[in-house]
Amino acid sequence: MLDAIPEVSNPGASEKRCRLRDLGIKPGVLPTGANNAITDVPGVAVGHTTLIEGDGALVRGQGPVRTGVTVIIPHAGDLWNERVSAGAFVLNGNGALTGLDWLKESGFLEGPIALTNTHSIGDVYKAMIRWMVKTHPEIGVDDDTYLPVVGECDDSALNDAQGFHVKEEHVFAALSGAAGGPVDEGAVGAGTGMSCYDFKGGIGTASRQVEIEGERYTVGVLVNANHGDRDQLKIDGVPVGQILETEMATLHREGSIVIVVATDAALSPRQMERIAKRAAMGLARTGATANNSSGDFVVAFSTTRRVPRNSPSVVLNLPELNDDFISPLFKATAEATEEAVLNCLTMAVTTVGRDGNSSPALPLARVQEILRQHGRL
Asked: In the chain, is it the N or the C terminus that has fewer CB atoms within a 10 Å radius of its CB?
């Protein structure tokens, strides 16, 4: 839902965008991975397809287009036959994450995760099946059928949501282009038309590393952030949103967030669900309270605890971290989620969409000034 649109003054519109740590803000205490991204978990890859076309008044079915798709591939092996241990948590259910029932029932993830806009979820779902069938033609014939995991957020305030602009080729392009290393953030892929705390939002990512009994583990998080009211936004504990609310016009939207957590720690589905719940705690550190109209979904997976398909073994001896040593991973999840949300805000650019609706970029210089005044810098 979009309220009446005031004239927007955005002092951050022309600023060069950067990640949170480039501003000198370092939430938490744990070290990051090399790229401070979900791809720091070995084998995890991310791909985007960004769709931007047209300006001006909405012509339903034609544009303007401000949308896209983002995919997360859990490992570089055989996704269908080497399923990864997984869990999920729904903080507020005003949204959709397909395949969730089976993921929670079975305790594994058997393909990529895709993120897109609300009305494109069906087209992306179908494309994901076709992509998997191309590499595993036995699916649905001599083997099980496939239930893709696709999460959605509503970008209709900026995008022509009735146009169904995300097509099969866009999903395939994101999947084929998925890679490790640095991840594009902000108004890209599924995040192209999203807003967060009434600023431009979208894709953000971060990672943390912990050492447990001499072993190093990584937790990586990627978010598609489209949630929150401006006065809720907190950065490093400072009520930045309340301060900026008096300085900038607010374009209020109700939205959602999908959070994806990956780790190379060998965790069971029960433990992955516990990890997913801790992502909600990191989200809360940025000010979120899971508004009524927000769909807040978390899916988490372990890259190293793999569940073989059609195994002849009666008993599967799978690795599992002792619960007595899991707390550092909880901390890592909360910290990485907090920073991933803030990275999406600091990286996103002001975006003008249909009917001239504008989602303003977070003014970075002003944020630094506010944090300096509060002793954080």
From this structure: N
| CATH number of this structure's domain 22-306+324-372, picked from the four choices 2.60.40.60, 3.30.70.60, 3.60.70.12, 3.40.50.300 | 3.60.70.12
Closest CA to 332 of 41, 22, 24, 112: 41
User: What span, in angstroms and rounded, lies between the C-alpha atoms of 292 and 29?
Assistant: 32
In this predicted model, what pLDDT tens digit does every residue of 65-82 receive, in sequence order?
A: 999 999 999 999 999 999
Q: Is 296 annotated in the active site? A: yes
- Residue 328's φ and ψ, nearest 5 degrees, are -60, -30
At 62, list the tokens.
């034609």
Among candidate residues 296, 302, 358, 359, the one labeled active-site is 296
As a whole number of angstroms, the distance between CA 97 and CA 90 comes to 9
CA dist 263 → 41, 84, 125, 275, 359 (Å): 6, 11, 25, 10, 33
Dmax over CA atoms of the chain, in Å, equals 66
Whether 358 is catalytic is no
Half-sphere exposure of 350 (CA within 13 A, CB side): 18
Look up 120 and say whether it is catalytic. no
Q: How far apart are CA 38 and CA 190, in angstroms?
A: 16
What is the tens place of the pLDDT at every residue in 116-172? 999 999 999 999 999 999 999 999 999 999 999 999 999 999 999 999 999 999 999
Whether residue 304 has pLDDT greater than 90: yes
User: Do residues 316 and 327 lie in contact, with contact meaning Cβ atoms separated by under 8 Å?
Assistant: no
Catalytic residue among 294, 302, 358, 359: 294
What SS3 state is found at 294?
Answer: coil
User: What are the Cα distances from residue 205, in Å, to 17, 118, 359?
Assistant: 15, 21, 20
- pTM for the predicted model, two decimal places: 0.96
Q: Tens digits of per-residue pLDDT, 325-367?
A: 999 999 999 999 999 999 999 999 999 999 999 999 999 999 9
Instruction: Report the alpha-carbon angle 29-186-24, nearest 5.
Output: 35
Spatial distance between the Cα atoms of 25 and 371, rounded to a whole number of angstroms: 9
Locate the domains of the chain by residue range. Answer: 22-306+324-372
Crossing angle between the packed helical segments 121-135 and 168-176, to the nearest 10 degrees: 50
